[in-house]
Amino acid sequence: MKFLHVADLHLDSPLRTQAARDSAMGDSLRGASRQVLTRLVDAAVAEDVDAVLFAGDTFDRDVADVASRAALATELSRLARAGIPAVLIQGNHDALLDLDRYGPVSEALTVLTPDAPTFRLGEASFHGIGFTTPHIAESLLPRYSRPEPGRWNIGLMHTSLDGAAGHDLYAPCALADLVGHGYDYWALGHIHKRSVHEADGTLVVMPGIPQGRSIRETEGGSATLVEIDLQGVRAREIPLELLRFARVPVDFSGVVDQAGRDARLRAALEAVAGGDVMIAARLEAAGTPVELGDPQMLEAQAREAAEAVSRLFVDRVRLRPTTRPLDADAAEDLATLMRDDAATPGFRDEVLAQIAELRAALPVEIRDVLADERLDDLIEAGVETMALRLGMGRSEP
Question: Please, which residues bridge with residue 115 across strands?
Fold first, then answer.
């Protein structure tokens, strides 16, 4: 028995954020989720599987986008022509979806429900209970059939397991309880990060999201090919994703001009590009404010650099400013310059103007703290405070 297991396709997921930042990236990502479905069917036919399992959240909403539903119908028809049935449960996102709203999706599709929780194919029994409401607070496991003797038993479940970062509890269930139920394989869905657990002859797989939709979804990108025979249960990943989000650190230490920043950007982007997968890069730019330069200019440079790298988009540039300690001589020189500048007429005029604005905003009873005659004391205190801070940041000789 051989089958493909996929979950969390989210075919019609809205991608407004990505489209707002980069329309080309938004268009590519929107198309990628449907192309991933095509890749899934390509793999099913090429591997000559016995079935394809959809473990929930095939769609993102209760009313499916017409184009996405048409894409699913088209690909299921390809499975039907190849003699490959598809088995599906509904997840929390598409719990209320009426798959037959425009007529039956495909003769190849079997939807497992509380009223019809088992599909038998050859020597295998596929058991599953989909969501019938957007949220289920209790475990669904007690409602699953016991293993059928003399057959391979495969369970489909949409669950948050014991919980995961970024995921609310949905139909929670402990791994140990799944293993103890006696099935040979559990085809899970819901958590977008891939995980594999094996114990007592049972394999439990959360395949992860096959096509990430934002920088929060950097893992997954595949379906799981499963084989069951007298040798046991085996699973391996089948890559599907067309676009991958990646966090890309860029160190601007020592950069002094725009040409230097451009060189660092190009090197970082070229290092993550390549292969068949498009990359949406979130740049993590580290350096002093002087090394980073103007934030808008840096982002414009990053997008310009990405134009020269094949199959790569810049999702966003995030600044990670750093400070470096001054040596004793540099700190003293900078403090001297500050004192000299504070003594010039232009500096004093600017300070007087700012003090006047601040004093007007203060209650009458405390305005004297910013009186003009105290200007010299205020300037001296400010300069010495900054000089002290520079001294505290000195590097040891």
Answer: none
Residue 144, domain member (yes or no):
yes
Kindly indicate the confidence band of residue 392, based on its pLDDT and cuts at 50, 70 and 90: very low
CA-to-CA distance for 112 and 261, rounded, in angstroms? 55
Say which residue, 275 or 75, is predicted with more confidence.
Answer: 75
Angle at 98 between CA 111 and CA 87, to 5 degrees: 15
Residues in contact with 325: Cβ distance below 8 Å, sequence separation at least 6, in sequence order: 393, 394, 395
Assess whether pLDDT exceeds 90 at residue 138: yes
How far is the C-alpha of 281 from the C-alpha of 199, rounded, in Å? 37
Residue 211, in any domain of the structure: yes
Residue 128 and residue 68 share a domain: yes
What does the pLDDT read at residue 206?
97
Q: What's this model's pTM, rounded to 2 decimal places?
A: 0.77
Three-class SS of residue 157? strand
Give the integer Cα–Cα distance in Å for 353 and 63: 61
Instruction: Write the CB contacts of 316 (distance below 8 Å, at least 6 apart in sequence).
Output: 21, 215, 282, 283, 299
Select from 170, 177, 164 the least CA-distant residue to 208.
164
Q: Is 304 helix (H, G, I), strand (E, B) or coil?
A: helix
Q: State which of 239, 260, 282 marks the end of a domain.
A: 239
Banded model confidence at residue 325, pLDDT cuts 50, 70, 90: low
Q: Is the dihedral of CA 389, 390, 396, 397 positive or negative?
A: negative
Same domain flag for 313 and 179: no
Q: What is the CA radius of gyration of the chain?
A: 30
Number of domains in the chain: 3
Q: What is the pLDDT of residues 107-121, one digit of tens each?
A: 899 999 999 999 999
- Residues 58 and 9: their CA atoms lie apart, in Å, by 5
Domain that holds residue 189: 2-239
Does residue 202 sit in the same domain as residue 232?
yes
- DSSP one-letter code for 396: P
Distance separating alpha carbons of residues 146 and 144, to the nearest angstrom: 7
Specify whether 304 is located in the same domain as 381: no
377 alpha carbon, distance to own chain's centre: 54
Residues near 132 by Cβ (< 8 Å), separated by ≥ 6?
90, 95, 96, 113, 114
Neighbours of 206 (CB within 10 A): 27
